[in-house]
Fold these 2 entries.
Entry 1:
Amino acid sequence: MSNRLVVGIADLKLSSNEEDILVTYALGSCLGVAIYDPGARVGGVLHAMLPSAEHDPDKARIQPARFVDSGVIALFKKAYGLGAVKERIIVKVAGGACVTGDERSDTFQIGKRNLIALKKLLWKNGVLLKGKDVGGKVSRTLILDMASGQVRVRTNGSEAPL
């Protein structure tokens, strides 16, 4: 029997329980970041809305998961606290879409900026991105199965491993 843990918008959750399934819905321009350490069997999911906490450090202190940069740092730190090791962590991402449907009218390009912020942060810290389902114009659901470490993405009713 599995336990479904829902990760809300601007939220993150971690688990070391193989009966847990972490899921986050409605990833439009937001990013869903899943991490998993197969050695420690620790994983987590972040649902970040905006790329950088630098414009609102007070909000980032209260709710780090709101931003890609502070949220990813919080996600990794909490995973380390559960026994994860940076060199073993597998990172996958979904979301970063252009929800307006027209990139020319997407003035703020939040989805694209979220993905750039993630890639820069991972690169700076020597962490590779192992899988992605990003961009386009569709909303996604990201699912992390703690029993296997498998990450799946659901789009328009169909689901596939990432």
Entry 2:
Amino acid sequence: MHDLRIPAALIWPVVMPWLLFALGLPTCLGIAMLLRFSKLMTGALILTAGNGNTSFVGQPMIYAFYGPKHFATGILIDR
């Protein structure tokens, strides 16, 4: 990770989770308003639908399938 060079090609993989969260937020708010969810339920919906935690499953799979060379990219994508 310390020797990771960040080329311009890595911008999209790093930005994509944030972009999906930004696009999912209005969708979740719309669903919550339509179904009259409480603020607590709305917050839970936004966090679970908008954020994926790939640390437990995704990172080991990246390491197993692509090796340590691409593991650092997976860490960057994981937010």
